[in-house]
Input
Amino acid sequence: MGKGIRCCQGYIIEMNIQLLDSQSKDEWDNYIISLDKSSLYHLSCWKDVIEMSFGHKAYYLLARDAVQKITGVLPLVRLKSRLFGDYIVSIPFFNYGGPCGDNMEIENELVNSGIEIARREGVEHVEFRDVSNRNNGLQCKTEKVSLMLNLPDTSDELWKSFDSKLRSQIKRPLKEESMTVEFGGIEQLDNFYEVFSKNMRDLGTPVYGKNFFENIFK
Output
């Protein structure tokens, strides 16, 4: 998409921001796996799932340095809705997104490139579902929060951390032997989707089509 020279922490760095192609997907994913601040929703597979399931156009940006090493990524998806309008978001259908890079300078350049795409495409706004406060002058909404719970080393310690009411609620179905756990793949999709759609309905949230989950297995 573009090249630039940037000054970062006293060093001059060359940055080349481009769109993800099929040959770079493994490289993208290996980079995401190496970062502590990334989430599984930054992986490249979601680009294919979203495009196949909903037909939305995706712009997955990656930054490379002078030796073509990936130094940052930003997944973007354009949504067009009669209800919510025409906008770009990183990323839809999940709570996490936003840029991930070696440093804040690279992440800010990715954000700026995303804004350039939004202006070029004429969308109403861009939404970065980010967990960092970047102080870059963009409007920031703080209505949603993420709660993180550190798990203890053993299941016994976790069990003891529950209050008595929660422990009794867990024990009841175990005593009645009314609950079983099964692991599987796409052969369990119908059973999963039945429970999922009912819970989403009860929460008042639109339900994804079953093909969304079918595409995850492809």
